[in-house]
Amino acid sequence: MKYVIIGNSAGAIGCIEGIRRYDKAGHIVLIADEPYHTYSRPLISYLLLGETDEQRMKYRPDDFYQQNGVETILGVAVTKIDAADKKLTLDNGQTVKYDKLLTATGSIPFVPSTKGMEKVQNAFTFMTLDDAKALDKVLTPASRVLVVGAGLIGLKCAEGILHKVQSVTVVDLAEHVLSSILNEKGAAIMQAYLAEKGVNFIMGDCVAEFGKNTAKLKNSGQKLEFDALVMAVGVLPNTELLTNAGAAVDRGVLVDEHCQTTLPDVYAAGDCTQGYDLAAAKKRILALLPNAYLQGECAGANMAGTEKVFNTGLAMNSIGFWGKHVMTAGVYEGEALEETDGVNYKCLFIKNNRLVGFIIIGDVARAGIYTALIRNQKPLDEVDFDLIREHPQLMAFSRCDRAKMLAGAKEE
């Protein structure tokens, strides 16, 4: 059996480990357009912050490919999937045949078309190790950096570079920061905290036109000068290869509970896919590293001939900015139970006698218990919810449930 994997991040690594659990001998080929050993992309901001280095960013040990019998073709892009003939065409002219294929092509930056963008001298995105290195090369203590986008990518970039430059200004059309994962109250706490650290914010506005080193804002008409521009408006699923190959694609590549596409023997995992979200009870994009790994692992197991299902996808985020932690999960529907002291914040969302989502800022200890309630769809009248609401702990569960949860933790 010849397995081929496109990509080299969490979904690809999950696939390798899923295959090797059931097939120790099959030939695995991994193809990726980046030239690096597998690394954790969320750590690129910490690289610039000086809290990690390239060695510690590696997602698996140096000998990972060797130990798992993986042939790597790095720094080369796949340009075409021929599903009928089961072969790939690479940008170096090479062709590669496969029996089973995984596409884990991730996502690509969304850069909106803006007048004058071609004039900008130092414009960057912030998703890859090369992005971080290129940005770092132009930064000086006198640099004024404009970040367009107040989402996860834009704010992590701001955190990573603020100590290196004169100023960082973040502009976003949304009225509050982290609008994709926080509600208004939670966002206000985080924005105030980040502003205290020195990040400048202009919310509810967007860039109408760029000059070489200037940005004119649409709503206020304000003109901003900058030395470096980071476009962090958002990301799009990288679906081009599978779209051109004839796979069913909505916003992302459509996969079933086995992580298989509509093409025979072709699977997909990670940010490029549109899989089932347990909390939302529908298929949607879950561009999150843990889900990417679990999808890849599921795909690998099925590629190797066993049957494995992944139907517990969940929107989750666990991030920190200068030591202040944020955890979110699920959907924000139903009754909202809020607690805040102006610095810490917790909001639990209750619907149909179940916890369906939460936002926690500050003390995130044992928040995994909330995640377990969502993932297991546990009826709240079967637990001591008053106790869990105040302090999440196992004692709020029945003895039988505690035993099951502890057994599951030991197995992992």
TrEMBL record:
SUPFAM superfamilies: FAD/NAD(P)-binding domain. The keyword Flavoprotein applies. Keywords: FAD, Flavoprotein. Pfam families: Pyr_redox_2 (PF07992), Rubredoxin_C (PF18267). Residues 336-378 form the NADH-rubredoxin oxidoreductase C-terminal domain. GO terms for molecular function: oxidoreductase activity. Transmembrane segments: none annotated. The keyword Kinase does not apply. Residues 1-296 form the FAD/NAD(P)-binding domain. Its cofactor is FAD. This is NAD(P)/FAD-dependent oxidoreductase.
